[in-house]
Specification:
The complex is a heterotrimer of chains A (412), B (269) and C (152). Chain A contains 15 helices and 2 strands. By secondary structure, chain A is mostly helical. Chain C has 2 domains: 1-34; 61-141, no CATH class. Classes of the chains: A mainly alpha (412), B alpha+beta (269), C mainly alpha (152).
Chain lengths: 412, 269, 152
């Protein structure tokens, strides 16, 4: 019903202005809300992982309380990252071809391998080495199904002697170091899927992968802030304010760099004013006003910059409660802002004709495979998976070892 | 110590098995390469893709905008109904500059109602205000550096040995990347097959010695078609190259289109 | 060499798993790669033959000339020699396969489709403002389409 109503409304709006190639006039946009979510979710993965590696590689001790949460966040979102892409295919049943006969000049084919590498060689392994000792201990103290589950996760390795744990720690460290470039590669490649399309003046841009990586870091850290605050609230546990302060400090600096690079991109576009600039300008002003000027720039960047920036200066003078609320607001706003940014890139890049002579209107339905409901479901799914993970791997009922040090007794 | 040893045995056995599998896979594809493709029944016999280089060229001076080509293409290739076209015709109307504006030209208007397949309605610019107006047939530009082939993740679209750029409808996953990558808007995602589609130069016709449908029905020879490797007497394609200064569409993108245009304006993109 | 395999248990398990993945991938690749893939390039070689297999809808001028040689001979002597039979008469393969299948009926629209005056049409083309040119609807009252310069 809602479907029919929205479609009637959409018919009233002129479909396009100016001239668009006939093939562009139907089925717009080809890449819909699902492809908006795909870089968004992948970006959250990369960002959350970078956040976790701050602890591991850069030894930021204050962030230890969120280390495991960030890793699990990255994992939960990574599992969902290819889903929108998969659902969007005309022939999802043929998706295996991407792995069987990958065309090596295609960014999308390489993404399949980068994804597999990142999932299996980096995230899963690092998580396993982090948790190995816990699995062994938990499998001993937990009865029933859960115990069996933990035993299964040990993959039959029960050696938790000092040298074994030391080795785990060392391998985990190496994996984390490898993981940083891998996370960059993962999301850089997503950016490159768009950046490689030279036919589209809005996408075909050497800065695209870098913009994607930076916004991924921003959104990932913001997601960790969000998750940490929500989890503490659900569990009614006190927040570690020092951890939160440091997290938001990194969030602020990442946001500064991100905003600077995106600003640079725009300055370059405006200054060089190449062939397609006029239509891009028109599109940005008219078609993307709400998502670009309001969503991405004002709410997603300027307001959080102001909130977080002022807290960098006045942290000591602002009471904890207000600071927490400001952090939460900035985190949530940044998450929305980066989603708007993905929307602007993906949908914006398809609202003008490649003849550079016209713009199109995006009609989006509620129901249907590419509608709002599907989008909302796909965005909720990683949170549901994360909840399950938190219940299994961050359970309060189980003793947890300090995640990063080999056992204190064994530390040199 | 013994357990390590048995593990080692297991490992070496596993690696041998893996190596064997990889080798077998290579041998199998080598064998397949020997098989001749056009031996299968139903396909035109005796056609060797390596012995042809098909080309189309467009002489826009001769296009009268009748739309027969776009219509024939739809019928010949069973192109889905609606705004889906493997070839279409654009009408360019360049207005005279407003008096006293100090401009060389007025606005450029482009349209292509139903891809031009039912002809064109009267222009909304009055005849007296038109500086130039002309038609441009569009089709796949058969690029030498096809961005569509480059981005296809599975190898479902490809540059065939005979100079055509084709799509394998049984292998296409319908991701739409090629459609995004094509600068000329020549591809679309078929609502029927859920795969990408585009001009194939009527591959089923040219392999039988027929002309592409659009070339067949074009009343004015605005579309020129031929085989660079087997020129015929008074080859229209060779004559076209001989008699015209040509240009390609969007040359700055480096796609190197193999479809050349004669007689088009700078406004054509 | 033996030192290489003397791994700690957790590393060994991971190594086994990695090997398992590689083996599974190789097996899957062996079975799921189409036979003719890579014959000419990074695609299914068979696709060429499959695409060529489809039946034409337009028969081509030569097929028409086989039976209708008189009309064909008349046509090639006159202005309309560049036209294909199927430009006006419509798709012909079905008719060529089975003469009982009738061709499309022609009407006035076929002539003005090309000859209606338009500022976009090149100057060399004979163009008429059809309403002013003749009030009726039958071009053939005055013109012979196969030999347009003759007047009956």
């Amino acid at each position: 019903m809602t479907n029919a109503v929205t479609n009637v409304v959409a018919e009233l709006i002129p479909h396009f202005e100016g001239y668009v190639y006939p093939n562009e006039a139907t089925q717009q946009p080809l890449w819909s809300i699902l492809i908006v979510l795909y870089p968004y979710i992948t970006g959250l993965v990369a960002g959350a992982f970078i956040m976790a590696s701050l602890v591991r590689v850069f030894n930021v001790k204050a962030l230890e309380p969120v280390y495991r949460l960030s890793m699990l966040t990255a994992f939960a979102f990574l599992l969902c990252a290819p889903l929108p892409l998969l659902f969007h295919l005309g022939h999802p049943e043929r998706c295996f071809e991407v792995m069987m006969t990958p065309h090596l000049t295609s960014p999308m084919a390489i993404f399949g391998f980068v994804y597999a590498w990142y999932l299996m060689a980096v995230l899963l392994l690092e998580l396993w080495f982090d948790y190995r000792r816990d699995f062994v201990e938990w499998s001993e103290v937990t009865p029933g199904f859960r115990g069996t589950l933990y035993r299964l996760f040990t993959v039959g390795v029960t050696d938790v002697s000092d040298p074994a744990l030391k080795l785990d720690f060392k391998i985990g460290h190496i994996l984390s170091v490898v993981g940083i470039p891998s996370a960059f590669l993962l999301h850089g490649y997503v950016g490159f899927i768009f950046g490689s399309v030279k036919a589209n003046p809005w996408w075909g841009n050497a800065l695209m992968p870098i913009i994607f990586i930076m916004s991924a870091m921003v959104s990932g850290i913001a997601l960790c802030v969000f998750n940490y605050m929500v989890l503490s609230w659900v569990r009614r546990k006190a927040l570690d304010m020092k951890c939160l302060d440091v997290m938001c400090m990194f969030l602020f600096y990442a946001l500064v760099v991100d905003a600077a690079i995106e600003g640079l991109d725009w300055i370059h576009r405006i200054y060089s004013a190449e062939e397609g600039f006029q239509v891009i300008q028109y599109m940005a002003r008219e078609k993307l006003f709400y998502t670009l000027s309001l969503g991405q720039v004002t709410l997603g960047t300027l307001v959080p910059l102001l909130l977080l920036g002022s807290l960098q200066l006045l942290r000591r003078r602002v009471p904890d409660l207000i600071r927490r609320r400001m952090y939460f607001a900035s985190g949530a706003l940044i998450l929305l802002g980066v989603l708007a940014m993905r929307w602007n890139v993906v949908i914006g890049g398809q609202t003008f004709s490649k003849s550079l002579r016209g713009v199109m209107t995006y009609k989006m339905e509620f129901a249907g495979l590419e509608g709002w409901y599907m989008g909302a479901a796909l965005l909720l799914l990683p949170f549901i998976i994360l909840t399950v993970f938190v219940k299994i791997f961050l359970s309060e009922k189980l003793p947890s070892t300090a995640p990063l040090e080999p056992h204190p007794a064994h530390a040199r | 110590m013994k357990s390590w040893l048995s593990r080692r045995n297991l490992l070496s056995r596993l690696s041998i098995a893996a190596a064997g599998l990889l080798a077998a896979s290579a041998a199998r594809s080598a064998k397949a390469a020997v098989q001749k493709v056009f031996a299968s029944s139903g396909a035109p016999r005796g056609y060797d893709p390596a012995m042809h280089k098909w080309r189309m060229a467009i002489d826009a001076n001769r296009c009268i905008g009748c739309g027969l080509c776009a219509e024939a293409c739809k019928k010949e290739n069973h192109v889905p109904e609606g705004q889906y076209f493997r070839t279409w015709i654009e009408r360019y109307i360049i207005a005279k500059p407003k008096p006293g504006s100090g401009e060389a030209r007025g606005e450029t208007l482009v349209d292509s109602p139903s891809g031009g397949m039912h002809g064109f309605p009267e222009s909304i610019v009055p005849n007296a205000e038109i500086q130039h107006s002309f038609f441009v047939p569009k089709l796949c530009n058969l690029c030498e550096h096809s961005p569509c082939v480059q981005v296809c993740p599975v190898g479902a679209t490809f540059d065939a040995p005979d100079g055509t750029v084709l799509i394998d409808p049984k292998y296409c996953i319908g991701c739409g990347f090629c459609i995004q990558a094509c600068p000329y808007g020549c591809r679309f995602l078929s609502p029927v097959t859920k795969t990408a589609e585009k001009c194939t130069l009527c591959y089923h016709r040219i392999t039988r010695g027929l002309k592409p449908a659009c070339v067949e029905v074009c009343p004015t020879q605005a579309r020129v078609f031929g085989d660079l490797m087997n020129p015929v007497a008074d080859d229209p394609l060779q004559q076209f190259y001989q008699n015209n200064l040509v240009q390609a569409l969007k040359p700055h993108l480096g796609t190197k289109p193999r479809v050349f245009y004669a007689g088009i304006d700078k406004e054509v993109r | 060499m033996s030192r290489l395999f003397r791994m700690p248990p957790q590393v060994f398990r991971i190594f086994l798993l990695a090997l398992g993945i590689v083996v599974v991938y190789s097996i899957a690749r062996y079975f799921l790669t189409p036979d003719s893939f890579g014959e000419y390039g990074w695609y299914r070689g068979e696709a060429l033959a499959e695409l060529a297999k489809r039946e034409p809808v337009y028969a081509g001028k030569a097929a028409c000339a086989e039976c209708h040689s008189d009309e064909y001979q008349a046509l090639v002597k006159h202005e309309h020699k560049t036209l294909s039979c199927e430009s006006c008469h419509g798709t012909g393969q079905a008719h060529a396969d089975n003469p009982d299948v009738k061709m499309e009926m022609l009407n006035y629209g076929h002539c003005v489709r090309c000859h209606q005056a338009s500022p976009s049409r090149p100057k060399w083309l004979k163009q008429i403002a059809s309403k002013a040119h003749y009030a009726g609807s039958k071009c053939t009252e005055c013109h012979v389409p196969h030999s347009p310069t003759e007047v009956p």
